[in-house]
Amino acid sequence: MDKVPEAVDQNKRKGIFSSLFRDVAVPIHAKLMLSFVLVIVIIGSIFLVIGVQLTSNRVFAEAQDKVRNDLNAARAIYDSQRQQVGSVVCYTADRNILKEALFTGEMDSANEELTKVGAIAGLDIFGVTNKYGKVLLRTHNPDKYGDDLSHHAFIKSVLYSEGCVTSTVLFSEYELNKESPSLAEQAHIPLIDTALARPVTKTEETSGMVLIAASPILNSRHEILGVVYGGILLNRNFEIVDFIKQTVYEDVKYEGQDIGTATIFQDDLRISTNVKNEDGTRAIGTRVSEEVYNQVIVQGEPWIDRAYVVNNWYITAYEPIKNVQDEIIGILYVGVLEQKYTDIRRETMFTFLGITIAGILVAIGVSYLFARQVSGPIKKMVSASKEVAAGNLNTRVHVKSNDELQFLADSFNHMAESIQKRDQDLKEFATKRIMQSEKLALVGQLSANIAHELNNPLQGIVTFSHLLLEDNKNLDTNTQFSLEKIVGQANRCRDIIRGLLDFSRQRQPDKSFFNINSIVDDCVSLVERQALFHNIHIIRNLQSDLPLAIIDPSQIERVFMNLIINAAEAMDGSGHLTISTRENKNTSDIEIAFSDTGTGISNENLKKIFDPFFTTKEVGHGTGLGLAISYGIVRSHKGSLLVESEVGSGTTFVVILPKEESGDNGKY
Ligand SMILES: Nc1ncnc2c1ncn2[C@@H]1O[C@H](COP(=O)(O)OP(=O)(O)OP(=O)(O)O)[C@@H](O)[C@H]1O
Ligand SMILES: [Mg+2]
User: Are 86 and 164 in contact (CB under 8 A)?
Assistant: First the structure.
């Protein structure tokens, strides 16, 4: 399988945006702006989603809390209504007129009194039984009596507990008919098909749910004489639900609909409600959703959540209504229109969206300004660097931003300035060098020609002046002195000519293995006896096991002699000259150092001492060729000649020669 090239692989890893920016030529300010906007859009979207979610959760949680409290209030109202029935019944049970009637069996006056009380209290059912539960009197149906109610749990519990009982109970159509035919009619509710309700086969409800209270009628010995019972039929009785709506929701409307509703269910059937149908009538006969039915009626748990009620979504609270035996027979419900809260959520979302869009617009504006501020100087620098690259070194960038960009621009200007200066220096140096080497070549050529032409006549002068001096023993002192002068000056001329010839010819060295120490010894013994060296102490520090080097001994001797004589002349005839030799183990070179205690060389002269004809000596005493020739010889041995000097203290020249021919150091 082919290996993916590293660069391609890396590019893949950099992701969509970098590769987009890489492949398409996008200006830097556009990239900056895009990045800004992208960040704002991402952050804005996250805030939008989280903000809306948090707010709507909070709003719905608040709504649920509210509806839970509303249900508590509704229950309190329902219970107080039950207590009210209880108070009327219990109070009536204590009335003497009833006790007397039971004692005598004469019920007419009792009937009259109970009818009055029942009418005032708004009771739909009001009757009396004997101590066995047999009905003695029904105020709403006086002809119906003599039947047995002892099977009814509320009568039974009174007979056994001898206390007042209040509860919610179911009355069958038959029982309702006995209490009052109009009650059975009121209780009758045809079932209406309701979306989401559990499926049922029956089509109507004939029984009724009654808020009931019963109390024992006791004699002075606390023996039960009978039971008085009374109740209110809840079917189609809207007093409680409307009172709840009025008290808890203050009849507030939202978009034409009641914001809060209350309902009493018999089992899952709406028997008393202010929830409206589409046509505005009360939704009697509709039923609770199956989901709520299962939780509240079947499992006996309250429901606090959103629920579909008749034709709308509500945030609802349902709880079971139980009878005397603690069996669930119905549901008490309150709910608020969910529409209000979904509208709040939508408004919140639009507010957040508005803020986010405004933020993005502001970010685009700010990032545009910022990007321009950044890209402006960068553009300037790009065009300036193009100019510099094209050779226009006068180009400068002007940026005033007091940040890294200004620093960059300043550095760029500094760099351009340095390049310009170096360019200038280089040009000057090159021109000087060319002129110098041309001059040197010319001088060398001229010197070589002159030296060559002068050499033969000079040789004649030297030979004949020597012969004259040797052959004519009887010369007078003056002539002898003059002849000796001629011989001396001719010798000097010969030396200069030789030097010039050596310098101009640059003869290739004739190399062989040689001991450098012995050359040093030869040089020292040659100069020792000269007058110049009488007061000079020559110290030799020679490495005894110095390896042999491949050199031209006569040329190297010439170098050493030049250095020794220069040292002696710099010390003006008195001082110490130390000559050391050693093998440099690291480089395998042989180093020969000549240290004197002479005048030293100024920094300015140090740069020139290897130039031909540079001398500080008086006219006639130095040709200025000694070091130039020595440098040439050392270079032709692939070695180097170093100098270190301090004015007033002395000078050290170091000749470095490779043991064998290898690299070209060429340092000085
Ligand atoms: N050891 C030294 N101490 C101080 N100055 C030195 C030393 N060696 C060389 N110089 C300086 O370097 C110059 C050049 O030396 P170089 O040997 O090339 O020429 P020269 O000695 O002046 O003349 P020549 O060697 O031809 O007689 C000298 O004139 C002297 O100023
Ligand atoms: Mg010299």
Answer: yes
